[in-house]
Amino acid sequence: MVECESLRNIRHRNLVKILTFCSSIDFEGNDFKALIYEFMPNGNLEMWLHPHANDIQDEQRHLNLVQRLNIAIDIAIALDYLHHHCHMQIIHCDIKPNSTLLDDDLTAHLSDFGISRILSEATSRSQNHTSSIGINGSIGYIAPEYGAGTDVSTHGDVYSFGILL
After folding, report:
1. Helices (H), 25-165
2. Residue 109 Cα to chain centre, angstroms
3. Which of 26, 40, 97, 137 satisfies CB 3.0 to 4.6 Å to 101 for a cystine?
4. What CATH code would you report for 2-164?
5. Is 6 left (phi over 0), alpha (psi -120 to 50) or beta?
């Protein structure tokens, strides 16, 4: 639901496009919900940076300096849009190689808005805590200040982006 709310009114060439959604009940009677994204034939950045030894196709994947720079620029542009040009500021909270999808031309598209936060201009930071239960984000990419209970902010996304670089 958070991801739907985050992506509902935003359009940008470096953000994933949701084509449709699915909501049903699985064979065990559990609620099943899925978002259907546009297909990204080159997978995610994780597959390119850390190929699995048992996958022959992954071993042939290499990004040259220009491709890496273009991917970094694409993600930076997407974050700039989310942080400064949306009608409501969106904090992604989980920038990492797995959430960077690559299309045919290796154009990067930011995805996985499942733990993102939406900040309106009328809302102060103190009302937007990361979680009362624990830290949200991926170990290794999450900003250290979130561990001390600091509110989510664009600074956390910038930190994660720096780790991604």
Report:
1. 45-49, 56-59, 65-80, 154-164
2. 8
3. 40
4. 1.10.510.10
5. alpha
pLDDT top residue among 123 and 104: 104
DSSP code, position 150: P
Task: Calculate mean pLDDT across residues 92-96.
Answer: 90
Domain residue ranges of the chain, discontinuous segments joined by +: 2-164
Catalytic residue among 55, 58, 74, 94: 94
pTM beyond 0.85, yes or no: no
**Mean pLDDT, to the nearest integer, of 5-27?**
83
- Angle made by CA atoms 70, 114, 62, in degrees to the nearest 5: 30
Ranges 21-30, 103-112, 136-145: which has the least confidence:
136-145
